[in-house]
Design brief:
Blueprint (H helix, E strand, L loop, with lengths): L1 E6 L5 E6 L7 H8 L4 H26 L8 H33 L6 H24 L3 H6 L8 H6 L4 H7 L4 H9 L5 H5 L1
Antiparallel strand pairs: 1-2
Length: 192
């Protein structure tokens, strides 16, 4: 192991260790020191988190959302997640509007099925907005933080197995029944 000294871009001195197997590469060592040191990056990230949490609290209060129940850290994190979920659902509504406009031209090849999927997505988004704005448990938002990652509209309109998406994302029985009523899938799809 060889140690190399340098100064990070933030001005703090540093030392890195390279494996004996790695051939000394001056460019590699310089590249490492062209960023901020760990402490400065960590402080920057903590500052960013604090600003985002404060902003989320402010937005949450402006929207009149109920106070969350949980530990102090859970409440702060869940408030940020809740505001992010609401913003994501607003973006999803905008994307649905785009698809609705495309469907209104009447030139889409599989239009009846797509119209049903759009109606389903609208219902799902409305139900999620209602549950997100009325939920009071911080742990709920923390547990569902990965659920909306790929997007609702993308998951519903472009996935082959709609029910697999619904099942994976833990959507309510009412939404499941609505999907069945629109004939987007069958009961057998639930078990496969």
């Amino acid at each position: 192991m060889n140690w190399y000294n340098g100064t990070y871009i933030c001005g703090h001195p540093g030392k890195i260790k390279l494996d004996d197997q790695l051939v000394f590469n001056e460019f590699y060592v310089e590249k490492i020191f062209l960023k901020k040191c760990y402490d400065c990056r960590n402080a920057e990230f903590e500052n960013y988190k604090q600003k985002k949490n404060d902003y989320s609290m402010e937005i949450s209060n402006e929207m009149g959302l109920p106070a969350l129940i949980g530990s102090e850290k859970q409440v702060v994190w869940a408030t940020t997640l809740r505001v992010d979920f609401i913003k994501q659902l607003e973006d999803e509504e905008k994307e649905l509007l785009l698809y609705r406009n495309i469907m209104s031209t009447g030139t889409y090849k599989n239009q009846p099925r797509m119209v049903s999927k759009i109606a389903f997505a609208e219902k799902l988004i409305n139900e999620l907005k209602l549950s997100i704005t009325s939920e009071k448990e911080a742990k709920t938002f923390i547990e569902m933080r990965d659920k909306l990652g790929n997007g609702i509209v993308n998951g519903i309109l472009h996935k082959n197995n709609l029910f697999q998406w619904i099942w994976k994302n833990a959507v309510s029985e009412e939404v499941t029944e609505f999907a069945l009523s629109l004939e987007l899938c069958t009961r057998e799809d639930l078990t496969s």
